[in-house]
Amino acid sequence: MPDLSLGTAGAKIIKDSEGFCLKFYADPNGYPTVGWGHLITKKKKYTANTTGDPNDSILTKKEADDLSKFLKLDYTSPISQTKADDLFSSDTSDAVDDVNALKLPSGAKFSQSQFDALVSMRFNCGIVVLKSNDVVTMLKEPKIYPTYADKLSKTESDKCSKLVSKAFSYDESLKERRNKEATLFCSGQQYTHKYPVYSL
């Protein structure tokens, strides 16, 4: 089966969560960022963003131009929408590759929604999240996947819901995002996201 690509639903969660700005801005750590949370560099720091709104920590034109010159970038602030799209594709490519590389039970395949949910979480948390015990445990369960042919019993469906909840209980400060990802993961399956993350 060919590798999956990031779908619309997964991209929406990532973009909605990251915020967006065509101008260079400082992230919560003070690192210069642009587009949908694209980290420009960690070599320079500016006044950290404390509100979550990129527009509250935009670099001045001089700061942006000086940074571009210092890093020898082929762009400066503001970037074009096309450049923002290119940076997003580049930034998500590692997450897409990592989820495609996951070892699934024999014959099992992700739905697009499941794939998107995992890519979003991997993009946000790094590859370490895919190696967490709860994610590994969930991925080992054949009944999680749409390729499982038999109808799930109520008990089996409930078990799947619990596995998903635990797998997406990662970074308690981002419960809202994790619940969106878990809901997406369960979309179209024989089980639902009925146990909010961190509730088990």
Distance from N terminus to C terminus (CA atoms, Å) equals 35 Å
The number of domains is 2
The biggest sheet, with number of strands, parallel, antiparallel or mixed sense and barrel status, is: 3 strands, antiparallel
Question: Tell me, what's the shape?
Answer: elongated
Q: What is the residue-averaged pLDDT?
A: 95
User: How helical, in percent, are the residues?
Assistant: 40-55%
According to DSSP, the number of beta strands is 3
Low-confidence stretches are none
Strand content bin:
5-15%
Radius of gyration, Cα only, in angstroms?
19 Å
Number of helices: 7
Strand order of the largest sheet: 1-2-3
Structural class, by secondary structure, is mainly alpha
Run of helices and strands: HEEEHHHHHH
Structural write-up:
This protein has 200 residues and is mainly α. It folds into two domains: 19-83, no CATH class; 102-186, no CATH class. Helix content is 44%, strand content 6%. A hairpin with a 5-residue loop joins strand 1 and strand 2 (32-35). The longest helix is centred in the middle third of the chain and has 20 residues, at 81-100. It is elongated and about 65 Å long. The mean pLDDT is 95.
